[in-house]
TrEMBL record:
InterPro entries, per the entry: ATPase_V1-cplx_f_g_su, ATPase_V1-cplx_fsu_euk, ATPase_V1_fsu_sf
Molecular function terms from GO: proton-transporting ATPase activity, rotational mechanism
Gene3D superfamilies: ATPase, V1 complex, subunit F
Protein name: V-type proton ATPase subunit F
General function of this protein: Subunit of the V1 complex of vacuolar(H+)-ATPase (V-ATPase), a multisubunit enzyme composed of a peripheral complex (V1) that hydrolyzes ATP and a membrane integral complex (V0) that translocates protons. V-ATPase is responsible for acidifying and maintaining the pH of intracellular compartments.
UniProt keywords, alphabetically: Hydrogen ion transport, Ion transport, Transport
GO CC annotation terms, alphabetical: proton-transporting V-type ATPase, V1 domain
Family under the similarity heading: Belongs to the V-ATPase F subunit family.
Quaternary assembly: V-ATPase is a heteromultimeric enzyme made up of two complexes: the ATP-hydrolytic V1 complex and the proton translocation V0 complex.
PANTHER family: V-TYPE PROTON ATPASE SUBUNIT F (PTHR13861:SF2), VACUOLAR ATP SYNTHASE SUBUNIT F (PTHR13861)
Length: 122
C-alpha cells in the first residue's frame, strides 16, 4: 500500500497508459472498500465526462492525499482543477512521455506563485 506520511492516505493518478503503468509498477495501485481503483488510464477514446467523473470521485475520497494528473489531460478539465481550492487532496500536474511539462499552463503553480511577491524572495 502506498502511504503518504499519514496512515491510509493514497496517491491517485489520472494519466496516459505509460504514466499509469509506471506508477502501478511502483506500487501505488489500490482498490478501496467499494473496489474503486485509485487510478484512471486515459486514452484518446476516453470521454472527457469520464475524466471529470474520476477527478470528482478522487476529490471526494478521504483516503486520497495527492492526485497526479498528466498536464495534457488536465487541460481537458481545467475548469475543475481551477475550482478545486482545498489543500487536500493536493493536485499536481505532471508531464507525460509525449507531452512535456509547461509551467505556464499549470494553474495551481500560477496560483501558488500569486501568493508571493518578488519582495518575499529578497
Amino acid at each position: 500500500m502506498a502511504h503518504l506520511g499519514i496512515k491510509g492516505k493514497l496517491l491517485a493518478v489520472i494519466g496516459d497508459e505509460d504514466t499509469c503503468t509506471g506508477f502501478l509498477l511502483g506500487g501505488v495501485g489500490e482498490l478501496n472498500k467499494h473496489r474503486h481503483p485509485n487510478f484512471l488510464v486515459v486514452s484518446k477514446n476516453t470521454p472527457v465526462s469520464e475524466i471529470e467523473d474520476s477527478f470528482k470521485a478522487f476529490l471526494s475520497r478521504t483516503d486520497i492525499a495527492i492526485i497526479l494528473i498528466n498536464q495534457h489531460i488536465a487541460e481537458l478539465i481545467r475548469h475543475q482543477l481551477d475550482a478545486h481550492v482545498k489543500p487536500t487532496p493536493a493536485v499536481l500536474e505532471i508531464p507525460s512521455k509525449d507531452h512535456p511539462y509547461d509551467a505556464s499552463k499549470d494553474s495551481i503553480l500560477l496560483r501558488a506563485k500569486g501568493m508571493f511577491s518578488a519582495d518575499d524572495f529578497k
